[in-house]
Amino acid sequence: MTLLLEREEVERFRLFLSQRLGLQFDDGKHDDLAEYVGRRIQSRGLHGFDAYLAQLQDPARSGPELRALIEELTVGETYFFRNPNHFRALESALPALAQRHPLRLLSAGCASGEEPYSLAVLVREVLSEAQVSAARIVGIDVNPALLERARAGRYSSWSLRATPVEAQQRWFVEQDRLFVLHEALRTGVVFEERNLLADDAEFWRAQAYDVIFCRNVLIYFTAEAIATLIARFARALAPGGYLFLGDAENLRGLSHEFHLHHTHDTFYYQRRGSGEPAPVRATLPALQPALAPVLDPDASWMSAIHDASERIARLSERQRDAPRAVAAPPPQPVRWDLSAAMQLLQQERYAEAEQALEALPLEAATDPDARLLAAILLTNLGRLDEAERACARVLELDEMSASAH
Predict the structure, then answer these.
(1) What is the pTM assigned to this prediction?
(2) Distance from CA of residue 192 to its chain's centroid?
(3) Are strands 258-263 and 266-271 parallel, antiparallel or unpaired?
(4) CATH architecture of residue range(s) 84-271
(5) Domain extents in the chain
(6) Are 313 and 253 in contact (CB under 8 A)?
(7) CATH code for the structural domain at 7-73
(8) Could you report the per-residue pLDDT of 104-147, keeping only the tens digit for each?
(9) DSSP output for 160-180
(10) 3-class DSSP state for residue 159?
(11) If residue 211 lies in a helix (H) or strand (E), which one and from where to where?
């Protein structure tokens, strides 16, 4: 019978996970965490939760147990060329990047290695032999078991489900129902066990990388951890370098160190150039909750982005409330009540919704959410040229608006 934990003990364990690994577990995971910790306490022959937590917090004793915890609680789902549009976008940028200096690419949260190996394939197919030889590709992950699989370079057909047949034939050899990666690719990627939250000044030195992939990783992190990592990525990327995040992850309201790009039917970020000023509208609210459902009939991706934005907004509020030894932060932009216009939009009463929007004070003309809603209404009214101009206005106010792109 598994040891039962008190709620307060589970909360302390959740706090440890967020502080040490940056991981966030919602209330729905309470029973799973309690069951896991109770099982580990019993298997280790420890006397209660306090003894278990003390072991995790002791650097001299925590190594094996922390690794077991990581293997149990982290998600390693990935496959080759996941979100192929990201690789198409990067393919068009690689030649110019490789002309500046030897190319440096990082896969942060690489799991079993499919992502950095996909980058290695792309580099070999796009660049010259000399540029390939000079390139450095690094994959990092906190899970040592997944890294061992990555170094072995042996994959099932499920990992290659998005890989073109010609690429499979060129870069893999089938052995015992597995696909073994070409040795040149295996030796072309360096794997390191790293906790993304651990600060290493040399690894994350300024302008250390030209490309960083960190996809479907931030969705598992706390708002504080996300803010730390994005700032770290911004410092480590060379000016003009690229950051690729997952579809449910964005930087709106979090960082002004990047441009948002929309090409090849996907979104990604480019580090601002040296000395390039931040946008004039430096502080933006998170997307208004009621706006997400009207952007697209199947707005699951937008809901995920909104969830991330809400977490970022909560972090911003805590930062604003914290005592400061410097000048107070700038005033926050007004959030206008768009509910009446959105309700009319959902009822397909587009002209009335436009009138409700126009009835707002003139200052609402500088609110990106209000301008985005205007663009949606104009599209439904068939006034496409005006809708396009409205989207352009949104991007003047907030270039991170994926919906306006």
Answers:
(1) 0.74
(2) 20
(3) antiparallel
(4) 3-Layer(aba) Sandwich (3.40)
(5) 7-73, 84-271, 289-397
(6) yes
(7) 1.10.155
(8) 999 999 999 999 999 999 999 999 999 999 999 999 999 999 99
(9) GTTS-HHHHHHHEEEETTEEE
(10) helix
(11) strand 209-214
